[in-house]
Design brief:
Blueprint lengths: L4 H26 L19 H25 L4 H19 L6 H20 L8 H27 L8 H4 L2 H26 L2
Helix pairs in contact: 1-2, 1-7, 2-3, 3-4, 4-5, 4-7, 5-7
Length: about 200
């Protein structure tokens, strides 16, 4: 039996995101002294939880990238959205392969994932029914806005000029701020996967 392209794409996006959330919780529990306010998410990729976290984020990236093949069949005219999803997936794969120990390479792949994850959510606004299209837009913009604050504070601290008016990542710590970049996209992906699965 031939499975519709939206079902395959929705399954990949939903389960890719779901397994990442679940295994990240497990990785945090296995990492001694891990603090979600102060530890980066990617710290999980170099500690005792590394095999779990890195495998999970690679699976997330593969699911996102491979879903594009089927999204192109279901939404053939949305080429920008396809490109954003593909880049987000490639970025996530890179994050899992090149852990924090790889320094600048890891940072580049992380930024690719963050930027195009948020942009994917925003771009999906045009291909969904209301009100979920509005929710996707809000989640995508939340991720992008949080990324701007996160990067601004990271750079200012690196150059010895912390932006105190941001109140230390809005009082959330660098780990908390980074999660405001990542979690809205994961929430969107879970919802978008469900949306695709419901289409006829």
């Amino acid at each position: 039996m031939k499975v519709a392209s939206n079902i395959v794409a929705g399954t990949l996006i939903f389960w890719g995101s779901a397994q990442f959330i679940l295994f990240m919780i497990i990785a945090e529990a296995l990492y001694p002294g891990y603090n979600i306010s102060w530890n980066y998410i990617s710290d999980l990729g170099v500690g005792p939880s590394a095999p779990i976290f890195n495998s999970s984020v690679i699976l997330l990236g593969l699911a996102a990238a491979f879903s594009v093949k089927f999204l192109r069949k279901f939404f053939p005219e949305r080429k920008i959205f396809h490109a954003f999803m593909l880049l987000c997936g490639v970025g996530a794969i890179g994050v899992g392969i090149f852990s924090e120990n790889f320094g600048f390479i890891h940072t580049i792949f992380s930024l690719i994932t963050f930027i195009f994850g948020g942009l994917s959510a925003v771009a999906s606004y045009k291909i969904q029914n209301k009100p979920f299209s509005y929710y996707s837009l809000i989640l995508g913009l939340t991720s992008i806005f949080s990324l701007i604050i996160f990067v601004a504070f990271e750079l200012s601290t690196f150059f010895g000029m912390p932006l105190y008016f941001l109140f230390n990542y809005l009082g959330l710590g660098r780990g908390g701020m980074e999660r405001l970049v990542v979690y809205p996209v994961i929430v969107w992906a879970l919802g978008f996967g469900g949306y695709l699965l419901s289409q006829k």
